[in-house]
Write a structure and sequence with these properties.
alpha+beta, 6-stranded mixed β-sheet, two-stranded antiparallel sheet, about 15% strand
């Protein structure tokens, strides 16, 4: 299996990406554009949610960016305040994938990837608050190694789990696997940060559209559950 994002070495740069940063400060026009995108996404979700912050994270907020790195835009929310007929995080995941399909958004040539995050999950790697215009956690110029063989092994394990869930055609089973993957990633980030096996496995499954495929199936199964067939 090819790990699309990780076959090439992780970027090791001496400065933050100059396309979006002026030394260690986010360029004003970039901040304005990202806040406009976040506002549009919230309107697209069309579900009332209490926003705590709007944050950028990932490789482009660190020294590890490459020319293939996205700009990860996170809407930090009080998820418990969201009232809907399904699990809130599942809804947000489905909405962001639909949003991504319908729009081709970039900032300074960098694709923007949107997420909704629970405010109870604090940043464990470099992150910058757009609302406060300041660092939540500053990046470090530290060279990190990552275990490619273990990432490959665990990616295959998760692919097997996803495949088994898909074969059941059971909504609850598919939802459970997605939830377990999110929890797996969060624990890895908390314990070891951006270079944890869990985080890199998640990115690999996201990049090759494995996660998107299961989310799409969950949406389909959910629709079927709500529908009434003709006799």
């Amino acid at each position: 299996m090819l790990l699309k994002e990780f076959e090439l070495p992780i970027g090791q740069n001496v400065v933050l990406n100059p396309r979006i940063w002026e030394h260690d400060r986010l360029k004003g026009e970039v901040k304005t554009a990202l806040l406009r995108i976040a506002k549009d996404f919230l309107e697209y979700i069309d579900v009332p949610v209490k926003v705590i912050d709007v944050v950028i994270a990932g490789s482009n907020v660190n020294y590890t960016y490459t020319n293939k790195s996205d700009l990860d835009l996170h809407i930090i929310a009080d998820v418990d305040s969201t009232k809907c007929d399904r699990e809130a995080m599942e809804l947000f995941d489905a909405k962001r994938l639909l949003y991504k399909k319908e729009r081709d958004i970039s900032v300074k040539g960098i694709p923007v990837e949107l997420y909704v995050e629970d405010h109870r999950t604090p940043a464990v790697s470099a992150a910058y608050s757009l609302l406060k215009d300041q660092w939540i956690r500053e990046p470090e110029r530290v060279k990190q190694d990552w275990d490619k063989s273990e990432v490959d092994r665990m990616t295959k394990v998760w692919k097997t789990l996803f495949s088994a869930a898909i074969k059941t055609g059971d909504l609850r089973t598919c939802r459970t696997v997605l939830k377990l993957l999110r929890e797996y990633r969060k624990k890895g980030l908390k314990a070891q940060g951006e270079y944890s096996v869990a985080n890199l496995v998640y990115k690999s499954l996201r990049n090759d559209q494995t996660v998107e495929g299961l989310v799409t199936l969950v949406n389909k199964l959910h629709s079927q559950q709500l529908s009434l067939k003709e006799q």
